[in-house]
Amino acid sequence: MADITKLEAELWEAADELRANSKLSSQEYCMPVLGLIFLRYAWGRFKRVDEQIDAERAKIEGRKPPKDPVDYTAKGAMYLPEEARYDYLVNLPADKDIGKAVNDAMAAISKDNPSLQGVLPSTYAELGNDILREVLRIFNNKALDEEGDDIIGRIYEYFLNKFAPLVASDDGVFFTPKSLVRMIMNILEPERGQMLDPACGSGGMFVSASDYVREHGGNPSESMMYYGQEKVDYNAKLCLMNMAVHGMQGIIKSGDEANSFYHDAHGLEGKCDYVAANPPFNVDKVKWSRAIDAGRMPLGAPKENKKGEVSTSGANYLWINYFYSYLKEGGRAGFVMASSATDSNAEKQQRRKLVESGDVDVMLYVGNNFFYTKSLPCTLWFFDKGKPYELRDKVLFIDAQRYHTAVSTTLNEWTPWQLKNLSAIVWLYRGELEKYETLLDEYKAYAAGCASMFGGAGDELLDIAGPENFNRAKDTMARYIKQQKADAKAEIESLPKREQKKRHEALAKVTASLEEAVKVISEAVWLTEKFGTGVYADIPGLCKIATRSEIRGDQEADKSSWSLTPGAYVGVPPVEDDGVDFHERMKEIHAELLKLQAESNQLMETISKNFKEMGL
Q1: Nearest-angstrom CA–CA distance, 226 and 238
Q2: Each residue of 554-591: pLDDT tens digit?
């Protein structure tokens, strides 16, 4: 992740310097640059899928069928005509009009993708050939192919956020981190049907949903239909570009008619199989009368304040109303919401209706620093109108604020394995033991795949028969790394100075791979220490299944807030015994303090004496 952060900063610095040398304003420069990232993104996906198709065709005996654009969309890529391929553009001769060539590339893509008509930028001639050629070269970085979507998606978001203060200060320019989006999809488990995001931004929910369907053996271009509302036209264009790159089809509406507070732009109330969103929460200045006229409030209407507007907490519950109202019978919703919404007093009765409906499924608290540009905590809400009878009286609460990976001092995320572990808690709550067992098998397969890296110690990784073996394997791996470092250090110190740096760098690479393996096995330990072979248990500080009567609380005393705050149910984790006697340690600290005070007094006396001798 540190390498990605460095790469995106370098790309931005270069692109921004070029902007300074052009005649364009930041607003005029923004979309063309993002369009070039779009082309590079599309080219990377096209190359990977093209290789897959060639490999499949190589197995066919006799005459090979011609490649069809549909073959690419089925695998999550957009077909690119030759003149729109990044390598073609970046290798054009110096005497060619590169601005015209890029404009022609955008036109060719739009011709094959009607949803992109009028969306892709066509002002590349205005950049000037020298600047445009340099930008193309900068974005043709091989590092962008190494991790595919993770890197390019991060860079896309990074550029958007850098442009945001200059061209679009609206709430809609801030996007949901990928790990939160993926967590939503893991719990929604989309398979087929209609999905709505009434605050769709750049379309991250749709892309993640398609990835999920494809990973589970489906073809989202055949089984899913996506509908989006995005009031900022700029973001709607990015959404259409993002979807096209992934070979997806959808209907995205923007502008005034797509303001979800006042419009159901697609007429989907009660018709959606899935709703997924990260709406702009804590919004003020929503006109109460217009919101009331727009309807979609099965949980109840918000109160009107003296300005004829809806309060920020009331606006949050407008979103919650909408998400619930769009679901058909059996539909599921997952969305990001301000943590304050789980127990705000003014909306207590709306929460009561939700809880009494039996449709609240999972509430997952997320700690600080998950958003790319903001540090606020949030909660992921999940509704399920198809919950089985045995779960309708229950809600699963998860507090994940202590469970994450720190990317930097200001950014946290869930790794793929951490996402699976959190999903595993939901599987056990739902009684889906086979999914949990499959995850254990994945951990075992990963461990076996790492065995050769750990020499003789790797034998233990080949024979993980039960959950208890993961902990022992982790300790063995850690000891192996420690010994390897010690042995390598002694060897390196015996080498000439000029050789030591190279050996240190080589050792660092090997050690990083070994330590990454330990991190993964540590996640297996985290999971199996809590749930063993697959038995759900309430874990203090992490998860709790609460009944509706527990959520209702003491109604007779009128103290019930119908709270949906995970921390109110899961409690705090037990304090681990560190083996230190508190009273004994306090005596030691007190003795150390007295000693330091004595030394300090003695030092002050010496300083005073020296000053007197100097006549001061």
Answers
A1: 15
A2: 655 456 689 999 999 999 887 665 556 667 777 778 78
* pLDDT tens string 513-550: 899 999 999 999 999 999 999 999 999 999 999 999 99
Burial 186-198 (b: 16+ CB within 10 A, else e): bbbbbbebbbbbb
* Cα–Cα distance measured from residue 116 to residue 347, given in angstroms and rounded to the nearest whole number: 41
Please name which of 88, 85, 128 lies closest in space to residue 108, comparing C-alpha atoms.
Answer: 85
Residue type (1 letter), 39: L
Cβ atoms 181, 205 nearer than 8 A? yes
- Per the listing, tokens 């340099």 go with 134
What phi and psi, each to the nearest 5 degrees, are found at residue 554? -85, 85
Q: Which residues contact 543 (CB under 8 A, 6 or more apart)?
A: 396, 397, 398, 399, 425, 570
In this structure, are residues 364 and 183 in contact, taking their beta carbons and an 8 Å threshold?
yes
Long-range CB contact pairs, 134-140, < 8 A, 24+: 134/18, 135/15, 135/18, 135/33, 135/36, 136/36, 136/86, 136/89, 136/90, 136/98, 136/102, 137/90, 138/11, 138/14, 138/15, 138/18, 139/11, 139/36, 139/37, 139/40, 140/40, 140/86, 140/90
How far apart are alpha carbons 68 and 74 in whole angstroms?
10
Residue whose tokens read 């007295």: 594
